[in-house]
Amino acid sequence: MLKVTKRQYEIEEQIQGIGNDDEILYEFTMQITSEELQRINEIIINEESIKLAKKSARVDGEEKEEIEAKILEIATANQTEFECICFKDHKEPFIKAVGEYKYLEMVELLFDFFIKAFLEKRTKTVDTMNTYLHKISGK
């Protein structure tokens, strides 16, 4: 049987900023709904940027610079949206507690966390299909 489960939050993860003596400088629970998770997936795998990058590889000069500027604009907007989804009302207090550099480090960790989660989900599906194929084929 195949089934999916709808939850209020698809991801609930503790986020902590830790000080020198392992003291918690700031802590909150990141809560991501299924709609937000869908948007994060679209941000990470941004098809518009991929199309523009392919187009950029085929042109030169001023047109290439315009395309690269557009890609940078999209990436900046996507990162801002990604941060808003993940941190919500905790962004400014987190920055205040741990500093801008450590905040950006956490954004990178979160980005990597979601990439890994999406890849694991894909590979789990492939493994399930392979197991089922082995089962029905008798191998």
If you had to describe this structure to a student in words, what would you say it looks like?
The protein is α+β, with helices and mostly antiparallel strands and 139 residues long. The protein is built from five helices and two strands, in the order E-E-H-H-H-H-H. It has a two-stranded antiparallel ribbon with strand order 1-2. Helix 4 (91-98) packs across helix 5 (100-137).
Can I get a quick summary?
The protein is α+β, with helices and mostly antiparallel strands and 139 residues long. Helices cover 69% and strands 12% of the residues. It has a domain at 33-114.
Write out the strand line-up for the largest beta sheet, numbering strands in chain order: 1-2
Helix content: 55-70%
Number of helices, counting only DSSP H or I runs of 4 residues or more: 5
How many beta strands in the DSSP annotation? 2
Q: What do the pLDDT scores average to?
A: 89
Radius of gyration: 20 Å
